[in-house]
Amino acid sequence: MPILALNNVSKSFGNKIAVRDLSFSLQTGEIFGFLGGNGAGKTTSLRMILNIATPDSGKIEFFGKPIQPEHLHNISFLPEERGLYRNMTAIDTLVYFGRLKGLTRNDALQRAKSILNRFGLSAESQKKLTEFSKGMAQKVQIGIALINEPKLLILDEPFSGLDPINQTVLEDEILCAAQNGTTVLFSTHIMQHAERLSQRILILKQGETRFHGTVAEALRSVGNTVMLTTTANPTSIPGITRAECVSQDSSGWNRWAVTLGPEQSPSDLLLYCTQNALPLTAFEQPRPTLHDAFIHIAGNAASPVSKAA
Ligand SMILES: Nc1ncnc2c1ncn2[C@@H]1O[C@H](COP(=O)(O)OP(=O)(O)OP(=O)(O)O)[C@@H](O)[C@H]1O
């Protein structure tokens, strides 16, 4: 049985459809990337999952049932809008939330110390949060989400505001939690995190699901792109759907990004180039990234074959 299942969930604000017919389910221990541009509907969806906002239609179930108060001990949420009791110390804050989530005082204290240590905050454990920087306070808030070792961890933009070292610490925490059986649902604008962490992703655009599948499937959707450095204009080569001159050289050797149609392979293109004596100094096939796939899926519609600038 899935830990969480959404079926055709929709929500509007006035005339604005924030989320339309959202459906997905999460299995134990998986890391699911919930992606979309600004205003795509990610936060609204996460708020509906947590019963903070009510869907207009559709069904959301935890362990096969509508959300119940007892589920809340097994779910943690890092909201996009962070807020803490600033007059408490870091350690007291973590222990307080650990106790609220049902831990004994001793367990809460041990876990709080371990979390502060992992996030490099042991020396600051007795300092009040008023003395903390934004990023340090965010690490405490992430610690609050982790302290009960939840079955489902929901993180809204967890990497924003963290420096690169702490982003890596958080990636490791997410991977470690998943290895221990926690299911992780996280939203992000930073595709590198989603590519490294997620088994499956969902991409929203203006409330609509544009993609739902594995990272490998998303990468395949970009299609084959080949980089050519040539003095010729490749726009008329048969089988290519798009050719964009990405840099020009005064000697006439221009670099082109060429997208191949579904029937065309890079080796077909290379054969065509050699058989037709196309002057070439470079022929590269870059691996697409999730960033490329995201732009392809959630960006503007692909433009037709474009000529050199
Ligand atoms: N309380 C609200 N009242 C009116 N409109 C809202 C409200 N909350 C969200 N919206 C609208 O719903 C849409 C989705 O917003 P949401 O905050 O879910 O997007 P998001 O994907 O989390 O965006 P971002 O990445 O910028 O945080 C937006 O058009 C937003 O203006």
TrEMBL record:
Q: Where would I find the ABC transporter domain in this sequence?
A: 4-231
Q: Per its UniProt record, what PROSITE patterns does this chain match?
A: ABC_TRANSPORTER_1, ABC_TRANSPORTER_2
GO MF, one term, reads: ATP binding
Q: Which UniProt keywords apply?
A: ATP-binding, Nucleotide-binding, Transport
**Protein's recorded name:** ABC transporter ATP-binding protein
